Structure formats: C-alpha cells, structure tokens
Amino acid sequence: MARNRIMKYARLRADLETLAQFGRDPGGGHTRQAYTIADIEARRWLAQQMVNAGLEVQLDPAANVIGRLPATVEKGEAAALLIGSHIDTVPNGGALDGALGVLAGLEVVRRLQDESAIRIRPLDIIAFEDEEGRFGAFTGSRVMMGELDPSQLAQMRDAGGVALGAALESVGLSIDEFPKALRSIERIAGYLELHIEQGPILERKGLGVGIVNAIAGQVRFSVRFDGRPDHAGSTPMSDRKDAFAAAALFATKLRQTVIDQGRDGAVMTIGIVKVEPGVGNIVPSHARLGLEIRDTDKARLGTLAAATEQEAETAAKAHNLIVRCRKLYQVDPVQMHPRLCEELKRSAQMLGLNFLVMPSPAGHDAQVVGRHAPSAMIFVPSKGGRSHCPEEATEWSDIEQGVDLLYEATVRLLRDSQSLATTESGN
Ligand code: GLV
Ligand code: MN
Ligand code: MN
To answer: Nearest residue CA, atom 1 of ligand 1?
Structure first.
C-alpha cells in the first residue's frame, strides 16, 4: 500500500519539478508573475497535462486554466465540485505556494480515474491567475466570481505602472474579453484548496495536516509623507521637514500598536518604502509606504485600520509635515464552510490523520470563492515556516498526507449527493 502510494505521488512530484522550471531564477527561486511569458508558458504546459489526464480544458479570458472531469453518472445538470489554487508566484518565490494545490488536484483526477470512482457531479481543477496580486489581489478568482467591475479594469496597474490591458496584450489576451471569465456561481457545489501553511504552527506541533476554519481579512494602505527637500548639512535638525523621519516614526509606532492590540492574532507589514529624492545629501522630501494589516477578527482589523490613519497623522504632526493615507483595499475575514470542514475532519479521521483546525493568516483564492460558494482548505506544514522565498519546502510525507486527505474528501463529495446537497443549501 505504502509502496503503491509512493508510485502514485511520484507523478505529482515530477509535475512539481517540471512546473518549477518555468520562471526559475538563476540564483534559486521562481518568478512567474501573472501575465508574464513564464507564467503563460507554465499555463500552456499545465493545460496540456490536463488534456493528457483526459480533462476538457479551457484557458479562460483572464488566463485561469480550468480542466473538467465529467461525472460518470448523468444526474441532470449537477453543479461542479472545484479544486483549485494558483500557479503564479511572487518575485523569487518558492516552488509550492499555489502550485501544490493545483497539481495535487490533477493528481486527484488521475487517481479517481485509476480507481474508477463514481462521480455524480463534474470536478473542475482550476489554476487561478494573479493570486499573488501583480494587479491587486486574486485577480483571476475575483473576475470569475464577479467581484471585478469591468469599469475598474482600465485603472488596474502593477507596481511598475504597467496597465492590466497592456500586460494582457503582451501575452495575446484582451481586456475587452477579460470580464467573460465570469462564471455562474450556481454551477459551483463547493471548492477545496490544498496549500502549504506558509507559517510555523503545524511543524511546531508535529502535525502533518491542518484544516482551515477561517482566512484572515486584510487592509492595505498607501501612506505618503510630504516634507521639504533641504541641504543635509546646513539645515538644523529642528528646521527640517524630513519625510523619512516621519515615516520611520510612524512605522515603529504602528508596529508596536499592532503587537499590543493584535494579541498574537494580527500582523502588520510595511513591504514598500520609497524615499525621494533618494540623494544622500538632501533631506528627504517624500516618503511613500505600502503597508498591509491582517487579522481573522473583523472588529480588531477595523480598529487597527483606524489606528493606522491616526498614527500617520501623529507622526506627520511631530515632523511638521503632511501625510496622505489612502486605503487601497479592505476585505473581511472569511469563514470556511462548516459542513465542508466537517467533511474534511471526517475524511482525516478515516485516514487516521492527526490534524489541527486552524485559521489562515495568509490569503488564498478560497477566501474569494468562499464569499460565494461553500469552501474549505487543507494545509500541509512548511519547513521552518518559510514561504514567499526560494527556501520554501514541505516534507514529502506531509504532502502525501495532504493529498490523501484531498482525495478522500473529493471521493466522498463526488459520490454523495446528500452531503453536497446539504452544503449547497448551507452557505
Ligand atoms: C498571498 O500569498 C498572500 O497571502 O499575500
Ligand atoms: Mn498561495
Ligand atoms: Mn503566495
């Protein structure tokens, strides 16, 4: 049995290794940002693997890759079960973030066919586009779920100022067609996503799988301090309007506020800092920060968002300059669907797996789909809690447990009209 399983998952391992070749960075790590050549080539490769596995495949107008395994039993127009994740990466990211969930879905398809599993509903494997947010966040799943207003599309730009339309055109896609990636939500029975944890909890507890009960909400701000450029030698410290000094004060104060008020549930990151004019002997006139706060507690997230605006004002006042705090994005935490979580727990118990029910501080396509259809997630541990870096890794035995669980739950959900009928009405 164990020998058999190693043989089966060898296909998944080979797929992960092949996908990792697309956008491989010379010094280690992977860069497949959405709508780049590496990303689109990886998507074409994936589509071919899906065809080889017998799926009906579609690359939709947003470059989401969708492979459908039809039902074995015709039961009217049964809504589909979805398994998905993403194959775009952050710049210089790891080989598993997103890729594992998509390729595990493909492996589940092959196993279903090997084992001639009865399916009363279709199964769609989806590789969503731009989960990592080159153009915001979750672009592919949001357009599919109808969350992107076509009027917003023309405004969407990446960090380098490239418009979404231009990026689409560069890989042969069209912004006019983009909204056609919309999918009918009534046709979705449920959504499952397997993902690496990207944090240290499961490893520290010595557990191979996690069942996610909620995904953190987040708020993102762009904060710009406007001071005055002056001579760095002859301007007395008390006369300066130093934009970076205000930004630094704000950053350290806000960090402490999040630690004090967040009670281990909230996290804050300032991942973008741009100082102008960026010359060693000129007092900085402008400092722009890009920051995000995440929390699974909606009320506390709101409190910390308000504190961000307050701390920015206080820091600006302390340095006698002005600040503009722009909220770019806010999403509430999303609860995973209780019945699907129960299904995962039952499957884990059947397989004899020890698991932890845990929230996800990281964002996932499941939080977008989960706003519209019953959704649930499985986590496998990340070595050293590392992710969004080339060192990202997971023990193969843990990946096996995660895929076993995904497979078991999928078999049950595809076979049992009763359990899905109740999830369909339960959301
Ligand atoms: C996605 O990886 C996110 O949590 O930002
Ligand atoms: Mn991911
Ligand atoms: Mn990621």
So the answer is: 363
Query: What average pLDDT score do residues 130-137 get?
Result: 92
Handedness of CA 96, 98, 104, 110 (dihedral sign): negative
Residue 419 has pLDDT above 80, yes or no: no
Whether the CB of 137 sits within 6 Å of ligand 1: no
| Tally of CB atoms within 10 A around 332 | 17
**Ligand 3 midpoint to CA 269 (Å):** 15
Strand partners, 377: 193, 212
pTM, entire model: 0.91
Residue type, 306: A
Q: Are strands 355-360 and 209-215 parallel, antiparallel or unpaired?
A: parallel
Neighbours of 267 (CB within 10 A): 17
Which atom of ligand 1 has the smallest separation from the CA of 362? 4
Ligand 1 atom nearest to CA at 388? 2
Contacts of 134 (CB under 8 A, 6+ apart): 33, 34, 35, 88, 158, 159, 167
The H or E element that residue 402 is part of is helix 396-415
Give the distance (Å) from ligand 1 centre to CA of residue 90. 9
Cα maximum dimension of the chain:
82
**What's the gap in Å between 133 CA and the centre of ligand 1?**
8
The answer on pLDDT for 5 being more than 70 is: no
How many angstroms does the Cα of residue 359 sit away from the middle of ligand 2?
A: 15
Which atom of ligand 1 is closest in space to residue 292's alpha carbon?
Answer: 5
